[in-house]
Amino acid sequence: MLAEHVVAPARYRVDGHIGLAPAPQGFGTPTFGDGERVRVDGTEIVHERPGTTTRVGITTLGDAARFLGIPGGAPTEVYKPATAFMPDAPLGIDPASAVALAAWYAFVAQLVDEVAEVYRSHMPTAVTIWPEHFDLALELGDQERGTRANYGGSPGDGGSPEPYLYVGPWDEHRRAGRLGSHPWGAGLSYGDLLASGDPRRAGRAFMFECASLLLGEP
After folding, report:
1. How confident is the model at residue 218 (pLDDT cuts 50, 70, 90)?
2. CB within 8 Å of 99: residues ≥ 6 apart
3. HSE on the CB side for 164, CA within 13 Å?
4. Is residue 137 helix, strand or coil?
5. Are 151 and 211 in contact (CB under 8 A)?
6. 134-147 burial, b for 16+ CB within 10 Å, e for fewer?
7. In the chain, which residue ranges form alpha helices assigned H by DSSP?
8. Using one digit for the tens of pLDDT, what is the confidence trace for 47-101?
């Protein structure tokens, strides 16, 4: 709700973009405008401007929007929000969950950054958290050749209550075999990562196996 109705709109009103990114202890905007940045740090929302940083505890969407000096509410001309804008409803942010979410984003970002570095000749995009999906991903590959795909991780959604890594080929014909374990492509669940005994190694192997199937050896 914060991502869709407060953090992304804070950026959108200045530069017309909604993409977010991992941030220390959470997520937030890249730097925009004249050096401005908005981010969630655990159970606080932080407003960074040249020469000053202010923060306040997260209570409601309305309070967060007023803290930033914006009206609040998703830019519905850009995306259809997955959550309702309820400015006065207590958000009840759980501290342990906030820490877990930040750690998940940091984990996924490291994995996809490594893939992008190895396959840097295949037009990787910047790592982005899309507010209406709340997953973190980048794109990589050649669309005309059928090799472009999204590489990322979700903290959980309507299809899966637990976090998972994914590689989603744009070309539906490439969603087969190892790349077709789900309708949208390949996935590796949080449970499988933990069961491996070495989540980073398992996650890295998953990402690079999928990249190799799509793109070949770097």
Report:
1. low
2. 25, 42
3. 19
4. strand
5. yes
6. bbbbbbbbeeeeeb
7. 2, 8-15, 61-68, 95-118, 190-195, 199-215
8. 999 999 999 999 999 999 999 999 999 999 999 999 999 999 999 999 999 999 9
Give the 3-state secondary structure of residue 45: strand
Sheet holding 26-28, edge to edge: 21-23, 26-28, 37-41, 44-49, 52-57
- Beta strands 128-129 and 164-169 are unpaired
Contact partners, residue 20, CB within 8 Å, separation at least 6 = 3, 7, 8, 11, 27, 28, 29, 30, 128, 129, 130, 131
Please identify which residue in the block is written with the tokens 């196996």: 209
Residues shown for the chain:
218
pTM: 0.94
